[in-house]
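Below is a filled-in request sheet from our internal design queue. Each sheet records the structural input a requester submitted and the sequence that came back. We keep these sheets so that new team members can see what a complete request looks like end to end.

REQUESTER: design group, bay 2
PRIORITY: normal
MODE: inverse folding
CHAIN LENGTH: 156
BACKBONE (tokenized):
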């Protein structure tokens, strides 16, 4: 999106998150197999791969470096519609789990947002903001540990 001076602001979509977890992929984001742990770990691994992809990580590092001079850059990440759509998709899943009595999730949108943030920041820190690629085993570990935390918080 161009800013007042006509400079195009880079957004998560421009970096490729939309391609891996965008509107087209949202329909199959959560497999909904009936196995909550496996379903959420699948979401987690997909998110980790998206946020640690080289182009996305590089753009995020640049955004952080320039944030004091161009706060609109970070706002473009925060206010990205794809992020809200992703959060809503996970919230809908958690709400269904709550409705079926499998989990106690009184605030599914809040829980979804926190789940995604925990997953994302853990991966960003572990990868040094994308400078060190994560192995498949490490991605699975981060997903598993984050899902464990969320499931413990919402057990019935």
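RETURNED SEQUENCE:
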């Amino acid at each position: 999106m161009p800013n007042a001076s006509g400079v195009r602001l880079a957004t998560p979509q421009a970096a490729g998150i939309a391609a891996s977890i965008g509107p087209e992929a949202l329909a199959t984001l959560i497999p909904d197999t009936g196995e909550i742990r496996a379903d959420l770990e699948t979401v987690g691994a997909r998110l980790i791969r998206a946020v640690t992809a080289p182009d996305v990580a590089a753009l995020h590092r640049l955004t952080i470096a320039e944030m004091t001079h161009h706060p609109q850059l970070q706002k473009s990440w925060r206010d990205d519609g794809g992020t809200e759509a992703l959060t809503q998709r996970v919230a809908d899943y958690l709400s269904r789990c709550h409705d079926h009595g499998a989990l106690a999730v009184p605030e599914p949108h809040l829980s979804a947002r926190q789940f995604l943030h925990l997953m994302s920041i853990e991966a960003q820190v572990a990868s040094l903001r994308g400078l060190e690629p994560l192995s498949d085993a490490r991605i699975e570990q981060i997903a598993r540990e984050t899902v464990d935390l969320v499931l413990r918080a919402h057990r019935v």
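SHEET NOTES:
- The mean pLDDT is 82.
- The CA atoms of residues 41 and 144 lie 6 Å apart.
FILED BY: M.R.
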